[in-house]
Design goal:
Shape: globular
Strand order of the largest sheet: 4-3-5-7-6
Largest sheet: 5 strands, mixed
Distance between the termini: 38 Å
Oligomer: single chain
Number of helices: 28
Amino acid sequence: MRREIPLLLALVLVAAVLGGLLVGYEPVGGDPDRLYRPLKSELARALHAGRLPFWSERFGLGIPLVAESHVAAFYPPNLPLYRFLDIATAYRLAMWLHHLALVATTYLYARCLGLVPWGSALAAVALTLCGFQAIHSSHEPFYHLMPYLPLALGIAERYLATGGFGWLAALPLTLGLQWTLGHFQIQTWTAALVVATGLWRAAFDRRPWRRVPALIAATGLGAALAAVQLGLSWQFAERVGQTQRPVSERLFYSFPPAHWFEPALPRLVRELRLGPEDPYWFGQQTTGFEAALYVGTIPLILAWIGGLARPANRSTLPWRILVPLSFAMATMPRWWPQGYLYLLAVPGLGYFRVPARYTLITCLGLALLAGEGFDRSLAPARFRLGLAAAVLFGGCAAVAAGLWTARADVQLRSALGVVADGFLWAVLAWALALAVVLAWRRQGLGSWAPLTAAALELAILYYAGTTQWGWSITLPGQSRILGELSRQSPVGLVGGELENLPVRAGLETGYPYLGFSLPQPDDLLKRLQEPLVQADAAADPAGADVFKRWLRRLRVTHVVGHRRSWRWLGTELGRWSDPALDRIIYHAAGEPASRVWSIVRLDEPFPEARVAIRSRTVPNRRALINRLSRSDDRSTAWFLAEDRVPEHAEARSARLRAWDGTTATVEHDGPCDLVIARTFDPGWQARIDQGPAPPVFRVDGGFLAVRLEGSGVDRVVLRYRPPRLALWVAITGVAAILNLGLAALAVLGPIRSRRPR
């Protein structure tokens, strides 16, 4: 325990910095409220019902929710958290625990690389509270994924050094857990770094080459363990076009090369007058929500000292290469777009956007080099050389920052009206950092002092980032608008500016927001409302009848907003002030923080289920949209030619006797189609009167249709089963058995070796 005091102090420091999470202080608004907590509320609802949320009808006209990987329904810790705790408490506790886990796993990895305990603790704190973590504290998958990155690398190092089956069995389990968290970009990098570690150690550090194939196989086994999540998400991504992102989208969100000074002056770029959405950011083809690079002033100084130490630590030598390489990859779309397109051709990398996220690898490398420099055994000459290099870098960065502030497109805030606040912060931070580092080197301060000082600086920067922090908002209890909607009856889809918030009140959102692209017809539902959400419009624009017809067809019954552009859609039920929505819902710069919200009730929507006695085929989606825009005809089912649905003879009469959401009873005297206003997905299955399962077709641009032949009274039962679920479960099961076999070898091997001959 005495040896691990640095780890304990690092854990205590990070636990204290994020201690507000334990008492209700959390990220408010943005993605936590508009995306992650609504998704988790549906996960919790399913878990309370004793099932997994393979389908949810509360996002638009329904989505295969488990396939939306941000739900992380197969991530084991989520199951007890969201089964037994309320949404807000589970969300905050998971965030706090995963940050502590990142401290522990980074410390473990640093120790595997041979860093001293205090250096390992500094690396752990620097990475856990770095700039990447600060701007992504509003992105749940990122800080959940992060602990598994250094853990997997540490396990790989131990296996390559010892050849133990226990380490080899732990690697797939670690990677498998990481894959189940969704948002698969960091997982891809983790797997690539694990394989690169094996190749490097075998080529340059004389590790046995026979261990490299085993390491690569274990990396693949980790993905196989999560096949049930990967397979379902891949199917959904292919169906909505997520796997074919346009080039322009993949080149956007790079790290601006002009910001190379940010590690030395981390506050300066945060002082832009309009914040992370200042026009400057868009001129740089990114936003302030995706570009931040710093590890703290003390870790930066020590990183230069560690990077210039001699003899160079062979275990950290790869990170000396990865730091500049990853920074080059993060900035490449700005200085060599074609080169970045070549990089995207590498298998696995071309599916993701946001090049600026490569700075995660830069931050990890700088943190590890800082840990290497936090060692009193370094030669005095090398320490002085590294310190001089750090000061020189800081001076050059200050000059570059001064030139940057002189640009015409850079407008900074200044409390004093003369010097930007970021410069004042940098002067103070560097003065204190140099004093602390020199005092520590001369043994005037214990190693606890630089670690604590670094944590304090990073804590201030963490809460001064782009994430809005505040006290937890209970929904629907603290929202007058959501409370009023809950009292309305009946309520179909709720459109407007609330996005996914109605889901928190047990309602259905008519303006869904997901981490994936939306399927048809939910994509149309969102595109219809975007002009009204993003800007005010005329009181009664041209094409109002078509617009209202589509909202009725897509079953929107109410819209909520603070703009007058919504009021022409129907009957305004009232206006309310709602401080909870004011804090959560986005408001543009210059827009008042307090707004007046109104609920507008639309005309009665089309029925969820109907019977069409006629079927017609149109050549393409545009023609279909034009047809449906002109008519309210409910007796015709419209199919696309590409779906190859045969037309049928017309029935004289057909009617829907009953519909309860899953079962319909239809009386008809000839062939007809049962049409359900629910998002089409290949996983939908139907059964008629316990007979053979008929096909389920796509109709009316994305609804469900079941063809009824003959005449009589038919009982149709609909259910959803994810496509190829049995295949993905089987792959996960086989991988689990193989991994258990590796674990058994790890246990039985030492027992057999101790057996007397």
